[in-house]
Design a protein that fits this description.
Hypothetical protein yfbM fold, globular, 4 strands
């Protein structure tokens, strides 16, 4: 079983009002298991504030506030995807993370899906940053 990610941009004023509402999510701003690595790189997928009371960052909505969204957008804009793929592709082939390869011996790099998915992710953050929005994502 692989993991999927949903990601959406939301008006920060609406998210803020929801979190501040007396009947909002209890403990909505508690951090749980801060992912490794320096921000903003760690915040692209797994970073943000956990919006539920569980002990895992998986299967829980993660809120990235507008300042974090802008930082992630700037980080993603600075990545040379071709250079990154050239550097990391051998390691990905060697370690074979789940969902990286397919049944015909190809992989996400050779079929182009990694580059397409990266551009989608970069686009979501760019639009959210331009709009001053928050991002809520969930890995399930």
């Amino acid at each position: 079983m692989g993991r999927w990610m949903t990601i959406g941009r939301h008006s920060w004023s609406e998210v803020h009002a929801f979190l501040d509402h007396p009947h909002g999510l209890p403990g909505g701003l508690r951090r749980k298991g801060v992912p490794r690595g320096p921000a903003p790189a760690r915040d692209v997928v797994m970073g943000g504030l956990v919006l539920t009371g569980g002990s895992s960052r998986l299967d829980a909505p993660l809120l990235l506030r507008p300042a974090g969204v802008r930082a992630v957008d700037a980080h993603l804009r600075g990545i040379d995807l071709d250079a990154l793929i050239q550097k990391r592709h051998p390691l990905l082939k060697e370690t074979g993370p789940y969902s990286f390869g397919d049944d015909d011996g190809g992989d996400m790099v050779t079929d182009g899906s990694l580059a397409r998915d990266f551009e989608v992710l970069r686009g979501v953050y760019a639009r959210a940053a331009a709009g001053g929005d928050a991002v809520i994502k969930e890995i399930f």
